[in-house]
Amino acid sequence: MVYKAIQFHNKTPAMPHQPALLQSARLPKSVRNLLTGMSIAAALAVLLPGEASAQTAPRPAVEAAPQAVPGFWDPRRRPDRPDLSRLTVIRFLTETDYPPFNFTGPDGNPAGFNVDLARALCDEIKVTCTIQMRRFETLIDAITSNRGDAIIASMAVTPQLRARIDFTDPYYRAPARFVSRRDAVMPEVRPEYLEGKKIGAIGGTSHEAYLKAMFTDAEIKSYPNDEALRLALRRSEVDFIFGDAIALAFWINGTDSAECCAFSGGPFVESRYFGEGIGIAVRKGNDLLRQSLNWALFRLWEKGRYTDLWLRYFSISPF
C-alpha cells in the first residue's frame, strides 16, 4: 500500500551544505559515503526489497513477498492533453553526482534514473530536449534566470520552494519503514502490535515525531545519528527502528548490518510529517510546461514505461 509523500532527508532542516530553501530528497550522509567509490551497478545492487503488508495479524520471523512497483498516479484522474505544439525545446537541469538518480556515465554524458526519465518524457512529448548537469545548489537560480526550463534532480516539494518555483505532480516518493531483527520480522505493523515495544528513531526528526503521535503505547527511544540507531538494533537494545526506507535498505543489504535485520511491515508515508513527494520544478507560472510534463508522466506510467524504468534502477523496491 502506498500512501502519500516523504522526503529522503532525515531532519527537517536542510543538509549542512544546502541553503535552508533548498531542502531536497537527499540520501543521508551515511548512504552517500557508502556510495563513494562504488560502481553504479554495486550501488544499485544494495537496494533491498520491501515486504507486503497484506496480513491482518503479526507473524514474527516470516518474510513477506516483495511488493510490485508502486504507482503514484490515479487512473481516474487522467490529465488533459495540453497544446504540445507550443513546446519547441525543453532544457532539463539535473545534479552532477547523486547516484543512482543522476551521475556522469562512462561516456561522460548525464546518466541515472532522473536522466532516463527526462529522456522518456521528451520522447513522449516529441520535443527536442537537452540535459545539463550542475551543482545542486545552483539549480534554482539557473531556472529562475532562464538558463534552463525544468529541474529533474530528486528535489522535494516544500512550501518554501513553492514560493519560488512550480512543481509537477510527484514522480516518486520514498516511504518510512520499520526495521527489526531477522528473527522478529512482522508482515504488518500497527500501533496495537507494538504496544510495550522499544522503537528507536533519530531524535528531532519527522520519524520520531510520527512515532510519538501514532505509536503512543510503545517506548520511543531517541538516538543522535544513524550509526547509534542501527547499532542499538543490532545489539537488541530496541525491538524496532523507524526511518527512511531508502537509507535503511542500503544499510540492511550492506556489510555494516552483518545481515542482522530486515524490513517489518509496509510503507508509512504521511505528507503532514514526511513532505509532499518529489517533483519536476519549472519556473513560476510556466503552466504549459508543467501541464505537459504531468500529461507525459501519466502517459509513461499508463504505458508501463515508468515501471520498466523503475525496475531498471530499483529492481527490488523499498516499498
Task: Tell me about this structure.
Helix content is about 30%, strand content about 20%. By secondary structure, it is of the alpha/beta class. Strands 4-1-5-12-6 form a 5-stranded mixed β-sheet.
Quick overview of this protein structure:
29% of the residues lie in helices and 20% in strands. It is built from eleven helices and twelve strands. Helix 3 runs antiparallel to helix 11.
Topology overview:
Blueprint (H helix, E strand, L loop, with lengths): L28 H7 L4 H6 L43 E7 L7 E2 L5 E2 L1 H13 L2 E7 L4 H6 L5 E7 L2 H4 L2 E3 L8 E6 L16 E5 L3 H9 L4 E5 L2 H9 L5 E5 H8 L8 E8 L2 H4 L3 E6 L3 H17 L1 H9 L6
Parallel strand pairs: 1-4, 1-5, 8-9, 8-10
Antiparallel strand pairs: 2-3, 5-12, 6-12, 7-10, 7-11
Helix pairs in contact: 3-10, 3-11
Give the key terms.
single chain, 319 residues, alpha/beta, five-stranded mixed beta sheet, disordered N terminus
How many strand segments? Answer: 12
Question: What overall geometry do the principal axes of the alpha carbons give?
Answer: elongated
Low-confidence stretches: 1-68
- Give the DSSP E fraction (strand runs of 2 or more residues): 15-25%
- Report how far apart the termini are: 8 Å
Major sheet attributes: 5 strands, mixed
Q: How confident is the prediction overall: mean pLDDT?
A: 81
Note the run of SSEs as H and E.
HHEEEHEHEHEEEHEHEHEHEHH
| Secondary structure tally, helices | 11
Radius of gyration: 20 Å
Structural class: alpha/beta
